[in-house]
Design goal:
The complex is a heterodimer of chains A (about 160) and B (about 325). Chain A is an alpha+beta fold and about 160 residues long. Chain A contains 5 helices and 5 strands. Chain A is globular and about 50 Å long. Chain B has one domain (about 45-314): Enolase-like, domain 1, CATH 3.30.390. In chain B, the strands form 3 sheets. Chain B has a 5-stranded antiparallel sheet with strand order 4-5-8-6-7. In chain B, strands 9-10-11-12 form a 4-stranded antiparallel sheet. The chains are: A alpha+beta (about 160), B alpha+beta (about 325). Bound molecules: flavin-adenine dinucleotide and FE2/S2 (inorganic) cluster (2 copies).
Amino acid sequence: MAVHNITFTLNGEAEAAVVPSHMTLLQMLREEIVMTGTKNGCAAGECGACTVLLNGEPVNSCLVLAVECDGQTLVTVEGLAHDRQLDPLQQALIEIGGVQCGFCTPGVLISARALLDRNPHPTKADVQAALVGNLCRCTGYVRIIDGVLAAAERA
Amino acid sequence: MSLIIAQNIKETANTNGELRAGGTDLQERRRSRISAGPIIDIRRLQGLDQIEWQADGSAVIGAMVTIDAVANDPKIQAAYPGLAKAAGGLATPQIRLMGTMGGALLQHTRCPFYRHPAYNCHKNGGDECFARDGHNPNGVVFDLGPCVYPHPATLGMALLAYEAEVDIDGVGRRSIDELYGDGSDPTRDHTLEPGQILTHIHLLPPIPQEKAAYFRSISRAEAEWPIVECLVRLVISDDQITFARIGVGGVANIPLRLENVEQALMSQSPGRETVEKAAQLAAAGTNPLPQTVDKVRFLVNTVWHTLEVLSPKS
Ligand SMILES: Cc1cc2nc3c(=O)[nH]c(=O)nc-3n(C[C@H](O)[C@H](O)[C@H](O)COP(=O)(O)OP(=O)(O)OC[C@H]3O[C@@H](n4cnc5c(N)ncnc54)[C@H](O)[C@@H]3O)c2cc1C
Ligand code: FES
Ligand code: FES
């Protein structure tokens, strides 16, 4: 089985891994690096639970090969809080009740972070459009959207 | 699995394996082992990730340009508004950021029987279409050949309505019609042979007064394949329709243009009556499956609605 030595930046730190050709980024994060914040919902690009930032853009890590991340920059949900301070999005989602079972939350937070990085003052429609690739079976989305708008207002 | 990271097109053309562009379609088939051979990653190929503008105002889009880049390019939005709307309306932000124009055109059918490892249909070595007799409310309404699952390519439909052409390395230029064939061969989703690379998409010079609308009838707000989708391009001059192109997707095993509806619109005043009459013609020639009879109504209403977006209210 072909393996590849890769290096990349993960949540601001330099990382290296040895990955087989077929390994997805999601598998590498969860099974190799054992960073399990990023979730595996469908492994088919449909649910968004596995969303991470690849060079600042939200992507489905279940569809990206680990080897393709050689030399790239990754951010997962574990990289959102800094110095024991939650990201304003995390804080707002907790306060406004945008989390129930929490399975979709890491992916939602990453998609929302990508939105706010690009557009710090989104409208409700902007938030809805940015989150269409993140399915939530619990909340009905209303409080997630309110949480993202609140985080944007506070920032 | 063997994975080759392709460095140049020549080397890629001579290598045995399935190409991987954004990987958003292919990876789902790797997971189910519908695709199990070697893979050639083409993300590092040079010269395929740009939108270039010609002196006549037309665009040439590289096969590795992402769907998102096409949707959000202000010049594409101005010159080819229907293409930008269709690109921005499909799938999810995550898929549009990874998915490429080449992959969007050449993706394989989303038929759940084809994508299930327990079924060998025409497209993976068998001699049967399980969607024909199995549960298939999403099936075609134009039954053009043995495979009755709709072609998935929104942008194939859009580029058909734009009369675009594609370059295939070592083969030359092909129309979108030629890229997909006539739907009679159930073994393939497009006419490229293994190893052939689609390099560029060529658009015609834009028509300055063009108005375009794209609409998808869909079972949830977004992030799913449509039941029926439609792209309409119209030029209206002095209250007369002087140019009409209509593409529809979700209704046949290839993207379709509705030339009969286009003809019915020509030289007419774009009012409610014209639009209603023309849209009814979308049903002409349909031969639905027992489970898709209702979809004919979706087709007519989707075309009608898309036309209404562009016609002045009367
Ligand atoms: C939830 C969801 C909803 C979706 N909804 C839609 C929708 O409504 N409409 C729609 O059209 N799509 C939809 N898609 C599919 C999406 O558009 C495709 O997955 C994407 O366009 C494929 O592009 P890619 O670059 O990732 O292709 P890949 O997965 O890399 O490749 C797809 C196929 O094309 C071949 N290929 C790729 N590039 C080339 C090339 N340059 N030359 C020759 N062969 C090539 C590959 O070998 C492979 O067989 C949806 C996907 C998801 C997950
Ligand atoms: S696990 Fe990747 S999109 Fe569902
Ligand atoms: S909180 Fe349960 S899936 Fe979203």
